[in-house]
Amino acid sequence: MDRFAAPRPTRTGDCVSRPTKTRPNCPEYRSQSASPRAAGGCWRTGLAPVLLAAFAALGYGQTASLDDAARVWTQESEYSGAQACRTCHLEIYARQEASNHARSLRQAGQVPELAASLPFSVVDRVSGFTLSLAAGSRGGVQLSAARGEEASRADLTWAFGSGTKGITPIGRAEGGAWVESRLTWYESLGAVSFTTGASQYDPKNSVEGLGRALTSEQVAECFGCHTTGYDKRASGPASDEAGIRCERCHGPGQRHVDAALGGRALEGTIFDPGGLAGFAQIQMCGACHGTPPQDNDFDALALLERTPHSVRFPSQRIVLSRCFNESFAELACTTCHDPHLDVADEAANLDEPCLACHDGQTRADGAVCPASSTDCSSCHMPKRRVMRHSMFSDHWIRVVGPD
Ligand code: HEC
Ligand code: HEC
Ligand code: HEC
Ligand code: HEC
Ligand code: HEC
Ligand code: HEC
Ligand code: HEC
C-alpha cells in the first residue's frame, strides 16, 4: 500500500486576498450544500502570492523535501541545529525534544521497543517466508527472510515513527536496495506484526520477502517528512539531528542565533508560523499532514468527504468543517495544538479551544452544544480506525450521524 495514497486534490484557487471582518471572504463552502456555490471566491491565505505560486508549482506536500519547505520562510541563513536554540528557549526545547515530532525518526538500534522485541521470528503465511529480526552486528537490527534454500538479509538502519502508533524500520538488503521492513512494531499490540498493507504484496523472491522495495525517491520522501533535513548523498538526515526539529518549521536559524547572541535586532531573522493565517498554516503543516484543497476545488472537497481514509490527513479534513469555513480564517492547527507538544499532554485542555468559540458569549456566530459541556472531541471528532492497527481523530468537526 502506498502509505500516503491520499486523495491528491488539484490546486485551482488563485485569489490570495486576505479576508477581513469588514470584507467577508469567499462565499463559504458548505459541505451540506448539494450544489456548492460558484467558484471564483478566494481562500483565506496569509501567504504572499509569490509563496502561494511556489506552493502550487511544487505541489507542496507531496514530497515535502526541505527544499520545498524552505519556500515558506524568507530568512537567509545557515542551519544551526536544534541544540543551538536550547540556551534561550529552554522550555520549548525541553518539550519539543521529548515530543513525537522529534522522535519520528531514530536509528533502529536505539529504539527500546524494537530492542525489547528481539529476537523475533514469524512465518509469513502469505509468502511462506520465515521472517526474523535479530540484533545486528553494528548495533542495528537485522531482518532476514528465508524459505527452503532461499534467504536474504537486510540491515535495518532507520526506524520511522515515534511508537505512539507504530515503528517501521527501513534499511538496505545485501545488494544495496532499500526495503521497508515487512515487520512493524505496533503500540496497539505492544508487539511486532506485519506492516499494514504488506499482505497486498506477494513476494516473488527472498529480497521481496523482506518487505516493500523502496526507490531512492521514496526513501527521500520518507526522510523528507520525518526529519529536519535530508542528505541525498548520505541517504539520511543532513546532520546528526534525526527527527523533526526546530528548523524544519522555523527555517534555518544561525543568523537568528548570531543576532541574539550579539544583541542585534532579531526582526526577520527567524520564521514564526504562528503569524500565518488559518489556511496558510494548515497548508504549512499540510506539507506532511495532507495538502488541503482550495475552497473552490469542489471535486477535491467532495472526494475528501467520501474518502474515510482521508481521516489520516488532518490538514485536508479540517477545511471541510464549518468551524473553519465560518470563522474568518481564525481556525488554524495552533488554535488547538501546541506544535512543540504531544496531544497526550494536551488532551485535558482540548475542550478550551472549542469553548473559546462555542461558549455562547465570546462569539455571536458560535452555537452552544445542547448535548454536553465537556469532552467535545469524543462526539464531534471521533477516532476512526483508518489503518489496521491505528486510530486517527476526524478533523472534519461536525455533528456526526450514526454510522
Ligand atoms: C541567544 C538567544 C537565542 C537563541 C540561541 C535563539 N533565540 Fe529565538 N529568540 C530569542 C529572543 C530574545 C527572541 C525574541 C523574544 C522572544 O520572543 O522570546 C526570540 C524569538 C524567537 C522566535 C519568535 C520570533 C517572532 O517573530 O515572533 C522564534 C520562532 C525563535 N526565536 C526560534 C528560535 C530557534 C528555532 C532557535 C534555534 C535555531 C532560536 N530561536 C535560538 C533568543 C534566542
Ligand atoms: C516535516 C513534516 C511535518 C510537519 C511540517 C509537521 N508535522 Fe506534525 N507530525 C509529523 C510526523 C511524522 C508525525 C508523527 C510523529 C510520530 O509519532 O512518529 C507528526 C505528528 C503530529 C502530531 C501528533 C503528536 C502526538 O501526540 O503523537 C500533531 C498534533 C502534529 N504533528 C501537529 C503538527 C502541526 C500543528 C504542524 C504545523 C505547525 C505540524 N505537525 C507540522 C510530521 C510533520
Ligand atoms: C507526506 C509526508 C510523509 C511521508 C512521505 C512519509 N510519512 Fe510517515 N508519517 C507522516 C505523518 C504526518 C505521520 C503521523 C500521522 C500519521 O500517522 O499519518 C507519519 C507516521 C508514520 C509512522 C507511524 C504511524 C504508523 O504508520 O505506524 C510510520 C511508521 C511512518 N510514518 C513511516 C513512514 C515510512 C517508512 C515512509 C516512507 C515509505 C513514510 N512514513 C513517508 C508523514 C509522512
Ligand atoms: C512542527 C513544527 C515546529 C517545530 C518542530 C518547532 N516549532 Fe516552534 N513554533 C511552531 C509554530 C506553529 C509556532 C507558533 C505557535 C503559536 O502561535 O501558537 C511556534 C512558535 C515558536 C516560538 C515563539 C512563540 C513562543 O511560544 O514563544 C518559539 C520561540 C519557538 N517556536 C521555538 C522553537 C524551538 C526552539 C524549536 C525546537 C526545539 C521549535 N520551535 C520547533 C512550530 C514548530
Ligand atoms: C475559531 C472558532 C471556532 C472554534 C475554535 C471551533 N469552532 Fe465549531 N464552529 C465555529 C463556527 C463559526 C461554526 C458555524 C456556526 C455555528 O454553528 O456555531 C461552527 C460550527 C460547529 C458545529 C456545527 C457543525 C455543523 O456541521 O453544523 C459543531 C458541532 C462545532 N462547531 C463543534 C466544535 C468543536 C467540538 C470544536 C473544538 C474541537 C470547535 N467547534 C471549535 C467556530 C469554531
Ligand atoms: C479544533 C481543535 C483542533 C484543531 C484546529 C486541530 N486539531 Fe488536531 N487534534 C484535535 C483533537 C481533539 C485531537 C485528539 C486528541 C486526543 O487524542 O485526545 C487531535 C489529534 C491530532 C493528531 C494526532 C493523531 C490523531 O488523529 O488523533 C494530529 C497528528 C493532529 N491532531 C494534527 C493536526 C493538524 C496538522 C492540524 C491543522 C491542520 C490540527 N490537528 C488541527 C483537535 C484539533
Ligand atoms: C455526547 C456527545 C457530545 C458531546 C460530548 C458534545 N456534543 Fe456537541 N452536539 C452533540 C449532538 C448530538 C449535537 C446535535 C444536537 C441537535 O442537533 O439537536 C451537537 C451539537 C453541537 C453544536 C451545534 C449546535 C447548533 O445549534 O447548531 C455545537 C456547536 C456543538 N455541539 C459543540 C460542542 C462543544 C463545544 C462540545 C464540548 C464542550 C460538545 N459539543 C460536546 C453531541 C455532543
Fold and architecture overview:
The protein is 26% helix and 17% strand. Strands 1, 2, 3, 4, 5, 6, 7, 8, 9 and 10 form a ten-stranded antiparallel beta sheet that branches. Strands 11-12 form a two-stranded antiparallel ribbon. A two-stranded antiparallel sheet has the order 13-14. Among the domains are: 147 residues, no CATH class; 120 residues. It contains 16 helices and 14 strands. A hairpin with a 5-residue loop joins β5 and β6. The chain is globular and about 75 Å long. The N terminus is likely disordered. With 403 residues, it is an alpha+beta fold. The structure holds heme C (7 copies). One heme C binds next to α12, α15 and α16. The site of one heme C has 20 residues, from α9, α11, α13 and β14.
What small ligands are held by the chains? heme C
User: What is the molecular shape?
Assistant: globular
Radius of gyration: 23 Å
> Which bin fits the share of residues in helices?
25-40%
Note the total helix count. 16
Beta-strand fraction estimate: 15-25%
Low-confidence stretches: 1-70
Q: Describe the main β-sheet briefly.
A: 10 strands, antiparallel
- Strand count: 14
Distance between the termini: 26 Å
